[in-house]
Amino acid sequence: MNGMTKQPSRRRPAGAGTAPPARRGRRKGRAAGRTLFEISAGGVIYRRTARGIAICLIATKGGTRWQLPKGKREDGESLEETAAREVAEETGLIGRVGSRLEKIELWFTWNEAGTAVRHHKLVYFFLLEYERGDTADHDDEVEDARWFDAEEARARLTFANERRVVDRALDILAHDEKRSAADVRPS
User: Which of 11, 54, 71, 109 is least crowded, fewest Cβ atoms below 10 Å from its Cβ?
Assistant: First the structure.
C-alpha cells in the first residue's frame, strides 16, 4: 500500500469496553455542601357539585404553574394539621381532613446567599372535603386559587407526581360514592 499503513478499526468487539468511563468529581447539577431535609404536607381539597367533583388548585410562578396547595410543617404540628393549615392559607378554603393519599419525595437545589444548597423534601398529601371559605381569601404566596372540575384540574396540574395524587383522590371518592349508593339501595 505504498508505505501507508491501515488505520486501526474504531470498532470494539462485542462486549469489550462496554462499561462507561468512571466519573470524577461532582455530577452536573448536584450541589456541593449541605443538604436540608424538610417535611411538608398539603392536600386535594374537593367539593361535590351538580356536575361532579371540583378540585381547588393554586397558581404560582406568575401563574405559569398550577399545583396542589402544600407547605412546611411547623414544630409540634401533625401532618394532618399542616395539610389543613396550608390548604387554608394558600386557597382561602377550610376543609375536613380525610384519607392520606400519597407521599412525594423531592430533591432540588436552591441558591441560598450565593451557595447552592440541596433540599430533600417529603410532601404528604391528604384528601380534604370542602366545608367553607372563598378562594379570593388566598394568601400572597400564590397568584391565584381556583376551582376546576376534576378532569380539568388534573389536566392543568404542572407536575406528574401531583396528577398521581389527584388520581388517587378520585379513586377514593369514586369508591366512597359506590359504597354510599349501595348503602341507600332499597331492600
Answer: 11
Question: Phi and psi at residue 6, in whole multiples of 5°?
Answer: -75, 135
Place of cell 398521581: 164
List domains and CATH numbers for the chain: 35-183 (3.90.79.10)
Contact 45, 87 (CB under 8 A): yes
* Angle (nearest 5°) at CA 65 between 46 and 37: 85
C-alpha–C-alpha distance, residues 96 and 44, integer Å: 11
User: Residue 68 in 3-state DSSP?
Assistant: coil
Q: What is the DSSP string of 51-119?
A: TEEEEEEEEETTTTEEE--EEEPPTT--HHHHHHHHHHHHHSEEEEEEEEEEEEEEEEEEEETTEEEEE
CB 109 within 8 A of CB 31: yes
In whole angstroms, give the CA distance from residue 116 to residue 26.
13
117 with 110: CB under 8 angstroms? yes
pLDDT tens, residue by residue, 34-62 = 888 999 999 999 999 999 999 999 999 99
**27: pLDDT strictly greater than 70:** no
Task: Tell me the whole-structure pTM to 2 decimals.
Answer: 0.76
